Amino acid sequence: MDTVREMDEHYDGAMTRPTQGVHLVIPRSRLSSQHAVAFDSPRDGRHVFLIPWGDFALIGATDTDYEGSLDNPAAILDDVEYLLEALRHAFPTAQIERDDVVSTFAGLRPLIYAPGAAYALSREHEIVESDSGLISVAGGKLTTHRLMGRQLIDRVQKRLAEKFDVHAASQCRTKEPLEGARIERAPASDVSGEAGKRLVDTYGADAAWVLAYAEENPILGERVAPGLPYLMAEVLYGVQHEMALTLCDVLIRRTHVIYETRGGGLEQARAVAELMASRLGWDDDEIERQVKAYAAQVALTQEWRVLS
To answer: Exposed end of the chain (fewer CB within 10 Å): N or C?
Structure first.
């Protein structure tokens, strides 16, 4: 956000203080808990959480000041050891080791600047407007992102009406259910049991689209990666319905292949890219670029191992 604000002639200094949060991805089979658990780090007393996530558990998060590339945050060895130390303290009989970590992921919190320890910074958000009319939102967290979006859109609508007599055709729709959320019954198909339930849990009523693709073309009914539930039909659905435009969009943000398999699914990346290419018009050079860009992201999830 501050990078954009620096281009404003009325820029008055940095508003955010980025802090990094790291999570570990560990198979749930290595832990005895089937529920979310909160526990304290023996190192500094901060809260750490274990969150069930399909066949895996997320362990996190860290909270440290960040000064690196905003585009490529990554866990370092100290982050991993900090979380493993806390996990071993809470689950001593599990004997969790580094090799139990399938992958890691890191994200940045755009917290509002204030002095003091990173973990003590406020998670509240704030909307600011410069003299030039640039409207920005800082702070907040994922669990409040729809509220932040609504408040920001309301502010923009108000300014457009006041200054330019431009009025929105409708009110902000962030209170409405997301696409596919209205579902009265599961779509009929040959996919049943846990596989069918997962599709409905993920796509709601729009699971019917995924199932239709899989039924029309047997290849689309195959798994994206061995041992994971994702179907190739979900790749097509991501492109056709969810604006997936890159291989990273599909394997990181529409599915979680990158985090849920050792090696990040690199062996399957080209096949997924080729399927996307058939709809997005990629040539061989673009497919290669997409695979290389994805490989770079996979490397980030494992970078801490290289530095250990």
So the answer is: C
